[in-house]
Amino acid sequence: MFALIGCGAKKKIGVKKTAPIEIESTTEVENFTPFSFDNIIISSKVDLQINQQYLTFDLTSRINSGSKILLSGNVILPVFKILIESDKVLGYDRINREYFQSSIEELNSKFNLNLGVEEVQKILIGNPLFSLDKLNDSKKTITDEGVLFESSQKDFNFRFVFDSQMKNLNQQSIVHNKSGASIQLSYSGKVIDKANDIPSVIRARVKYDNNLINLNIKNRSRLLDKELTFPYRVPKGYSKIKI
Q1: What is the pTM of this model?
Q2: Which of 33, 67, 177, 212 lies at 20 to 30 Å from 227 by C-alpha?
Q3: What is the pLDDT of residues 91-114, one digit of tens each?
Q4: Domains of the chain with CATH codes
Q5: Which residues, at least 6 apart from 123, have a Cβ–Cβ distance to it below 8 Å?
């Protein structure tokens, strides 16, 4: 090869031009397979920003499908726990020695949201907040981002963006029209199974009143269908607060 270059060969070598392969987009909702399970444990690293305050911690999420979620945060030692059930949310903070208990309805009213235990579960595992049937009834548009689904229900606007082949959910958001409160979510990668698994990275942006929360969640591992316990007990001497 080097000899040919040194001789300065005059013969031109034609380069065959190939046209890029265009993959046609589809809006067939049935192409998407939601991630399903009975029980799951997810281990993650979380970077959290609340307004101008920052915190990095390890998070363990224990989820019983459609029933119960236990979130445990650790910074070397346990920092907090939050237990989400079908009708209520409980939590305690070891740093400030405080705990709270509130109904799902009360929290949704305070923060202008429309979330329950099933919706939080879908956010954490990268499934759309809507069922596939409800997505089919939404407005569909093929955009540069992918396949966009839009819907309005009561006081909320919903937005979902899938890849061009409807295999992966890339973004979803919920916006409260009157207050402007919103949750914007983006997903990338897969933890283990590249075809159907929870995302390896979740980015969330939450706005309510004059507050801004940014979350960057990196899922390290997950265990499926193990027997789960949901250990939650407020330590003695903690003060009850209202959120």
Answers
A1: 0.85
A2: 33
A3: 999 999 999 999 999 999 988 888
A4: 30-225 (2.50.20.10)
A5: 115, 129, 183, 185, 202, 204
